[in-house]
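hey so u asked for the seq, here:
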Amino acid sequence: MLFDLLGVPPQALFAQLLLGLINGSFYALLSLGLALIFGMLNIINFAHGALYMMGAFVAWMMLHYLGIPFWPALILSPIIVAAFGMVLERTMLARLYHLDHLYGLLLTFGLALLIEGLFRQLYGVSGRVYPTPDILRGGQNLGFMFLPNYRAFVVVAALVVCFGVWYFIERTRIGSYLRAGTENPELLQAFGVNVPRMITLTYGLGVALAAFTGVLAAPIYQVHPLMGFHIIIIVFAVVVVGGLGSMLGAIVTGLMLGVVEGFTRLFYPEASATVIFIIMAIVLLLRPQGLFGRR
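ran it, structure tokens below
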């Protein structure tokens, strides 16, 4: 009866729910990395989308040039991109921590253009196919819908990683050091903690989350230099809705807005490209600090 009232077949409804969860998983992972970097380092990392694209390309290059399959690449690609990100942090971003947010935004925006331009020069703008791992091909017929195995894996992996990182930051001793380092670094350094190294590792963790998301996205979307540019604006909107610096807000809001976007495609396709920004505008009017942010 519910489906009759909605005027849509159940298969279409569940298909859009799955699509929303997949997109929401990517939004949650990327937003978590952005929230981690902003909350801990006070940097608005506009290069996050380019590093997401870089993670996908590193996995693709590992497969086509070195024969390294998906599973090792899922671990190696985030490590390689994180190392690249830590070099950027030490050589460039570390000089901006005590300046206005605008300087960090402009620098990371320039870095994003440089990284994307380099990959466009090397590989052009056409997409490259990254195959789904053999063990996750096919799907399950649930009766009311067909569930592709790889899509289900993406949602589960994203949830595990998101809440694992949140637990690490919020509930462990090392996480407490990270939070203390952002609020009172001088006091923490007086206790013998190497705060600059800790900040560098934190930035590396945020970048690794972006690269991990890129590897997960590679078998679903074609790998191309502009894939990060297409998603980063949406991710910034997700972070604003959840609350800048709120990691739990990034996770919950990313998943929620992904589902909302999926259902909007079904019921009112014309608004699917703007619904997240409409929600962002409403949240900024009613609660400027975001749903999970603090004043």
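The chain has one domain: 10-125+143-286. The two ends are 44 Å apart (CA to CA).
lmk if thats what u needed
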